Amino acid sequence: MIGLNIDPMQIKTARSYAAEQGMSEQTQFMEANMNDPFPFENETFDAFYQVQAMTYAESLETVFGEIYRVLKPGARMHIVDGVMLDGFDAANPSHKQLLRETREVTGWGGLWHHSEWKKAAESVGFEVIWSKDPSYSPEREGSQALLIEQMGRHFWALALAVKLGSKIGLIPHHLDILMERLNRHGESYIEMDKRNMLTTSWDILAQKPLTGN
Question: Which range of residues forms the domain containing residue 85?
């Protein structure tokens, strides 16, 4: 398995974890930018997998094209990422404000509608097996709001502890500012999820045909 990451610290963490798990010989981690041509020969890999990295793709078609190139015929690509849903109206000012505030708390880059992901995969030759949100249930609002709210309560408690520590000089003031920023606009994120404007867990499984096209 070969992992790519633009952040050298995450590469270091990955190598350390692989060593702890006794998997150093089976894994390799390389510092690389997915927006650049992949440093591999054609038809090298048996599969490709990523989680929430392609929000920083400059062009889905370009990145998917590189994935298609380095996969063997019949190999599959599995993507889990954040996408926009039908509940979002780009012409609605309140929707656009919610999205701006959600970007602040999540740090997301590009957020394309899920249909754009499917279209991009198919445009380079992939056969899309499924494109869906596996965590969505029509019986409840959104797919992740409850989890976000639960985790948010713990995060607010931590932020309060940091603020108190900053006031008495035990914790640097800039950490208090950082925690406040990370907590800001969490309610906008929850609102967008409840109203089916976006999801962070859209799941795409696609296959490279056994014969070229």
Answer: 33-207
Per-residue pLDDT of the chain (213 residues; tens, 9 = 90+): 999 999 999 999 999 999 999 999 999 999 999 999 999 999 999 999 999 899 999 999 999 999 999 999 999 999 999 999 999 999 999 999 999 988 887 878 888 999 999 999 999 999 999 999 887 665 555 556 666 666 666 666 666 777 788 778 877 876 666 666 666 677 888 888 888 899 888 999 999 999 755
Any domain includes 25: no
Please count the structural domains in the chain.
1
53-58 CB contacts, 8 Å cutoff, 24+ apart: 53/81, 54/79, 54/81, 54/110, 55/81, 55/82, 55/108, 55/109, 55/110, 55/111, 56/109, 56/110, 57/109, 57/110
Q: State the CATH number of the domain containing residue 83.
A: 3.40.50.150
